[in-house]
Amino acid sequence: METTTLVQIFGAVYGLLAVIFGAFGAHALKKRLTPEQHHSFETGVKYQMYHALLLMILGFSFDFNVALEKYMGYSLVLGTFLFSFSIYGLVLSSSKGNKMRFLGPITPLGGLLLAVGWFLLILNLMYAI
């Protein structure tokens, strides 16, 4: 599958899931989560939606024909997944009293990949000048 299409699909799927998870967190989980857990869950949803929108914009703005663009797209796709979904797993498992601690180191790894993706976007824009 072409990288451009892949980035657009992940952007759309992440956007859809952010809406669903946001509603789920606001309604179904509201009584089950502590305020701190709810805040963490919302952070995962926000970052997922921000990066879903970014992926959609990038998917329509770049051809992803050069390595730098591909690495940017892959970093953002994987970083979004690792960051947001590890937060969801940590919050939900913690709310059930059985926190999946192995997910703890995955969240900053996802954040690092998101930062790398943004840095590669800056490089792509600088090379376009």
From TrEMBL:
Keywords tagged on the record: Membrane, Transmembrane, Transmembrane helix
Compartment(s) of residence: Membrane
InterPro entries listed in its UniProt record: DUF423
Transmembrane stretches, start-end: 6-29, 50-68, 74-94, 106-127
Pfam families the UniProt entry points to: DUF423
Membrane topology: Multi-pass membrane protein
Any one of the GO CC terms: plasma membrane
Family as reported in the entry's similarity comment: Belongs to the UPF0382 family.
PANTHER family attached to this UniProt entry: TRANSMEMBRANE PROTEIN 256
Name of protein: DUF423 domain-containing protein
Organism: Flagellimonas allohymeniacidonis
